[in-house]
Design brief:
Two copies of one chain form a homodimer. With about 210 residues, the first copy, chain A, is mostly helical. Chain A contains eleven helices and no strands. In chain A, about 70% of the residues lie in helices and about 0% in strands. The interface between A and B is large, with 49 and 49 residues. Chain A binds a DNA duplex (16 and 16 nucleotides) through helix 4.
DNA sequence: CCTACCGATCGGTAGG
DNA sequence: CCTACCGATCGGTAGG
């Protein structure tokens, strides 16, 4: 039938549909949580019935695993790229913090899911995500230890310092708005300053102590 | 019947039951999330049937609201108490950070729920919790602004600095273990040092720059 | 891509 | 504090 052929031609292709589903899941999982989101909600978001989603994906768990694994892989890749440009620990830390903050500001849905739904993720994906997280935290810790060894950074516990810096950047995902008073680059620079100061290598002078 | 009387005497009183329910909810909500936890799970945790819970509480939402409101009220009270002991911004900030870190380390279930389930909470409780959060963040921001005004702190954006310090303390709730290598007091002191250094008022010397 | 449907589970109530 | 039960909704499959 001609009408049916036109309707079929209007339908988005497989890759487009898959991307729409992923987009809807990002929004809904981050707003209502994994268990708070039904397949019916995701389907309604893109104008289909829940059962039709299964022509483009295998399961709700797979959708979650894909989001969380991709997020951690991109954060790791961002760290590698940021720290490759210099051999100076202070420069590396500043670049890593800028990349970390930028990613958390621009992918707030992804990282919120990543930070909140780790227990909603079934095995073996949960352990894979946890392993990637540990790799990321350890990379930061090693960078800090390198700076301490070279006499550039001061900290009592490099591991705590790494956790503190990571966590403070994660927080940006919870309040950043593109139309806020500060540009993303200003924020990234400011967090870089705070990170360096926290490690005793800050650009700003010490406050006078009378 | 005598057997029935003994069984009745063995049963915990109303206040005890309510506390058991709250405890089970804290554990389960923090591990599996609000929507991931069923009333049947909570009941099984303390050896009853789900329908019996309703003799001691009114609804699952009420349980969540109580947890989240109590958490924010205690954090605010802790801040007030910590900052009352001194008029020196640096001393106040150190004490506030220690209180913040201690609370997040020792009440990790409560604060995880507080940070993850805000969107699971129905109105009007959700807005009440959000208002308490804003009050808490503003109190930190004012303390930082006071320190800047008195020439003790250096920061470009007191609001960002407040968010960064709050968030880094929140992170402690995600990794602290009582049997870890560092005592809670060591961690609280270290976070106090990091906070002060981040504001250019740290106790440790700057790293040498050759 | 839809309708129809599966068994399981949800929060909560009735009644004793 | 229990059993029995309510209507609603869950993720997913069958079949076309």
């Amino acid at each position: 039938m001609a009408g049916s052929a036109v309707a079929r031609a209007d339908r988005p292709g497989g890759a487009v549909r898959r991307e729409q589903i992923r987009e809807a899941a990002l929004t809904l999982f981050s707003e209502r949580g994994y268990y708070g989101t039904g397949m019916e909600d995701i389907a309604a978001h893109i104008g289909m019935r829940a059962s039709s989603l299964y022509n483009h994906m295998s399961s709700k768990q797979d959708l979650l695993a894909d989001i969380m694994l991709t997020t951690m892989q991109r954060l790791l890749a961002g760290f590698e790229e940021a720290t490759a440009a210099s051999a100076e620990p202070a420069e590396q830390l500043r670049a890593a913090m800028a990349a970390h903050v930028r990613y958390h500001a621009t992918h707030h849905r992804d990282v919120r899911i990543g930070n909140r739904e780790i227990n909603s993720l079934a095995q073996p994906a949960q352990d894979e995500v946890k392993a990637l997280r540990r790799r990321y935290a350890r990379a930061w810790q090693r960078l800090i230890e390198q700076g301490v060894a070279e006499g550039r950074f001061v900290t009592r516990h490099p591991q705590l310092a790494a956790y503190a810096l990571l966590e403070m950047g994660i927080g940006v995902s919870q309040w950043y708005r593109p139309d806020g008073p500060l540009s993303l680059e200003e924020i990234a620079r400011d967090y870089g300053d705070m990170a360096l100061r926290q490690l005793g290598a800050g650009p700003a002078p010490r406050a006078p102590v009378p």
